[in-house]
Amino acid sequence: MTRSSILWETAQRYLPGGVNSPVRAFRAVADDPLFIVRGEGAYLIDADGQRYLDFICSWGALFAGHAHPHVVARITEAAQNGTSFGLPTPQEVELARTIVEAVPSVELVRFVNSGTEATMSAIRLARAVTGRSLILKFAGCYHGHVDALLVAAGSGILTFGIPGTPGVTSGTARETLVLPYNDVAAAEEAFARYGEQIAAVIVEPVAGNMGVVPPVPGFLQRLRDLTKGSGALLIFDEVITGFRIGWNGAQGKYGVEPDLTCFGKVIGGGLPVGAYGGRRDLMAQVAPSGPVYQAGTLSGNPLTMAAGLATLELARQPGAYERLEELGARLERGLREAVRLAGVPAVVQRVGSMLTLFFTEAPVTNARQAEAADTARFAAFHRAMRKRGILLPPSQFEAWFLSLAHEEADVDRTVAAAGEALREVVRG
Fold first, then answer.
1. Helix runs in 40-89, H state only
2. pLDDT by residue (tens digit) across 201-242?
3. 237, 259, 374, 410: the active-site residue
4. Rounded Cα gap, residues 307 and 328, in angstroms
5. What digits encode the pLDDT tens for the residues 117-134?
6. 237 flagged as catalytic
7. What's the topology of domain 69-316?
8. Which of 36, 114, 173, 302 would you call most buried, defined as having the most Cβ atoms within 10 angstroms of its Cβ?
9. Domain 3-67+318-427: assigned CATH number
10. Is 183 a catalytic residue?
């Protein structure tokens, strides 16, 4: 037996399903999971010594790639001074200042430990300040495993075909309105019927948990207009897109400012993190300056703050986002050509350094269209790419990510492997 197979057998004895997050089980691609022992730049090395070119990048968190020397040095320095204090540190002040200066809609920010905590806290705040209970979300968008938001969610929920999850009460679900993503008319109808009851609209400004699905022109602006007109808050879930698709996030790219923004992934440099922020008058309602309680023992952890600051320093360097855009465009062009030559029904959708190859005939704009993709064909493609040393997210409904560690040669190698894998899939 290989070391990986031994680990997998052992893991299933001690962990639910053998993993600590469902998609990691690789069930959606009918394969066994990888057990990783080391990361180097754009590459991962598993327990058997196999080396893979990585397009998961810790689900988008690793903007600079694995074990970047600048990030590792900052984490090491912070750890030598202590791993946790449960008290304020200079690093959290500096990271908060960096986020506020980068994102115009954010005047105050609160750090938490995950994207789930961020969205949960933002929704609590929205309900408190509006005095309303309904939350409006969009099918296929995933906002963490908050009870109220595990309704027609994306990510693992969409991958495994679960419409919600046991343990979420019907009463909780009734307080969540679910609409098709990118459907302006449906949003207008919802506000016409329930506008005075809606506390907030929460949306991924670029959906990344049903695969990469950009907003259609005018969608985000119309949500801004509807929420402003009704007194509801607009919450952008930028856990994926924040500092990933641009220094100002998706709101900077599309020119729409929300009331509250949720962050994660990139701002932690690969360590556990989340944050929510927004207008001063709203965030001033959060304890201890206001009555809306939220707390966390490890919030603002000094190691995470150091890793986040180091990563954002790299992101801020001249040409960083331009480089990722060029790499993303190169990968997109190459995959489109590989699809054309193989004669496979598939489309490539990309925003910046995040991308999805959908095995479907037409562009995807919502969850229903994403669900129509050929998941069996994606699974075969995934296995064929893994065999060639290319590691993709193990689900049709997850985004691929590039990092600053990826190079043109890595992209070209991936395109060549994709061409071979697609032909293999066609042959069956």
1. 69-80
2. 999 999 999 999 999 999 999 999 999 999 999 999 999 999
3. 237
4. 24
5. 999 999 999 999 999 999
6. yes
7. Aspartate Aminotransferase; domain 2 (3.40.640)
8. 302
9. 3.90.1150.10
10. no
